[in-house]
Amino acid sequence: MEEFAAQRAEGKVLWHFAMSVDGFVAGPEHDMGWMAGARVRPGLHEEYVRTTGAILGGRDGWDGAIGGARPYGGAWKGPIFVLTHHPEDAEPAEDVTFLSCDVAEAVRIALEAADGKNVEVFSASIGRQLIERGLIDEIDLHVLPVLLGDGIRLFDRPGGVPVRLRRVGGDEPTAAVNLRFRPGGA
Questions:
Q1: What pTM, to 2 d.p., does this model score?
Q2: What Å distances lie between residue 42 and 4, 33, 48, 105, 165, CA to CA?
Q3: Distance (Å, rounded) from C-alpha 12 to C-alpha 6?
């Protein structure tokens, strides 16, 4: 079994998502109910709580999926930045700043607020824009054993060219990652 390296706070811009096997990070209307009962390796959430200095997300995800909830079951405390075209009609929340600026400026603001820790990006569309501008340092995915078939894709750029990635922490950074599942109920 592959050894996992602990997350470190290095001031990275980390695009972080749980994802279905078929590439969805949220169901239709940003529904996140499909994640209920999912488990991750022990200590993972604690690593993110320790290494994350700020979070950058989008308005649809904030309104639909998050709705004022704090990440990691409320264990993480820190600034959240929500990028929106309409900050004037956003519901105020503690430690949440609604931004209406370019994504590069939003990353700059979040990195400054993170004070040397990582900025986690919780938005598929913002992540895509940051990838296109070369502003993502790492992508951290947790693939859950479910096929959604519909919803919000991690990376959706019809007609675009492939973005080549290198796996972190492996002997062969360009090798395929093999997953094997069986269909079955809960």
A1: 0.87
A2: 11, 21, 12, 35, 26
A3: 14
